[in-house]
Amino acid sequence: MPTKFNASQMEAIKTGVAPEAATQFVDFSDMPNVRLCLQKTVAADLQLRIDSTGDYHIVSGGLDEGY
């Protein structure tokens, strides 16, 4: 199944090759692994964000107070 990119995504791809060639390369090199990983992905039990100073903050999840 070929990867479909919208116009803004294609604009963001700056590879120096034609969009069709870049899409074909991704479809036959990276996308099978991406699809496999996504099939095995589960939701994270802890989500963090990093702020502009490099500090981490819990977005959701976390350890129970008993730990």
What is the strand and helix layout of this fold?
Layout (H helix, E strand, L loop, with lengths): L6 H6 L6 H11 L1 H9 L6 E5 L5 E6 L6
Antiparallel strand pairs: 1-2
Structure description:
This protein has 67 residues and is α+β, with helices and mostly antiparallel strands. It has one domain. Helix content is 39%, strand content 16%. It is built from three helices and two strands, in the order αααββ. A two-stranded antiparallel ribbon has the order 1-2. A hairpin with a 5-residue loop joins strand 1 and strand 2. The longest helix has 11 residues, at 19-29. The protein is elongated. The model has no long low-confidence stretch (mean pLDDT 79).
Q: What count of domains describes the coordinates?
A: 1
Net shape: elongated
Number of helices: 3
Radius of gyration: 18 Å
Q: On the 0-100 scale, what is the average pLDDT?
A: 79
Spans of at least 5 consecutive residues whose pLDDT stays below 50 are none
Strand and helix order: HHHEE
Give the N-terminus to C-terminus distance in angstroms. Answer: 46 Å
What fraction of residues sit in β-strands? 15-25%
SS-derived structural category: alpha+beta
Number of strands: 2
Strands ordered across the widest β-sheet: 1-2
User: What does the largest sheet look like?
Assistant: 2 strands, antiparallel
**Fraction of residues in helices?**
25-40%
